[in-house]
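Format notes (please read before filing issues)

Several people have asked whether sequences and structure tokens are stored in separate files. They are not. Every record keeps both together, in the order shown below: the sequence lines, then the token lines. Line labels are part of the format and must not be stripped during preprocessing.
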Amino acid sequence: MRFVNPIPFVRDIARSRAFYRDTLGLNIVEDFGNFVLFETGFAIHEGRSLEETVWRTPSDKQEAYGRRNMLLYFEHADVDAAFRAIAPHVELIHPLERQAWGQRVFRFYDPDGHAIEVGEPLGQSG
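Then the structure lines:
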């Protein structure tokens, strides 16, 4: 058994594809319309179609998929540059700050309210 990747549900696949491609700079490997796989192994799926696939019926609820119970974690070799590029385009949870374990990270929300953390690679904190 090996873990492959998380697949967050998204309400608007086009909006989320553009967000992860243009705002975060992830390269698309495969785009199947309602499912997008990025170069890093990260993927997104249009929520209603995935609800129907998994639970055999889509939810009638229109609430945000992000529930403040999961953090999508990314690393960037130049976390300062990533913060400058991303921060103006997102709802920040907090700016770049050093964590108790020494790593510098910033956190924000994607269009569906999923919390995202971008940090310097572990071991690079100084």
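For reference, the curators noted about this record: The chain has one domain: 9-119. The longest strand covers residues 91-98.
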